[in-house]
Amino acid sequence: MGAELNGDDAVGLRVADQLARLVGKRDNLLVLNGGSLPESTSGALRRFHPMLVLFVDAADLGKTAGAIEVLETQRVGGASFSTHGMPLKMLMDYLGEELGCESVLIGVQPERVDFDSPLSDCAIRAATCLAKELHRLLAVPNLDEEKLFAKKEDLGV
Question: Does residue 156 have a pLDDT over 90?
């Protein structure tokens, strides 16, 4: 998710595009590009019946640009998400209530989120690294939130 025209805010879009190419078509995995309105994916998610939804977005983590962190749900409200139509915490709660799935946010520290600026080199490197690592981790059968948090070190966080 993210805004394509706002520099590093588009890091989640890049991860989704790269991950979709890496995993191809799989019955047990759905990669969606939610853009700046991730709530628009709720219909596709409802049809898919996920057990786990991963969101990737630029987030002010207070770290160096390109840092990656798996954020626990209670921390989502404290991160900066200013380009989305609905607060992410509200969407995550909705998905949990309506679909019975868990949601996890993976934040990437942006360098810049200025309008009409390209992705920074730090964001490009982070997106490539994250897409490759998610591809590797998603090979784990029955990956859930607990297993993902246990593998935080594998993401370099």
Answer: no
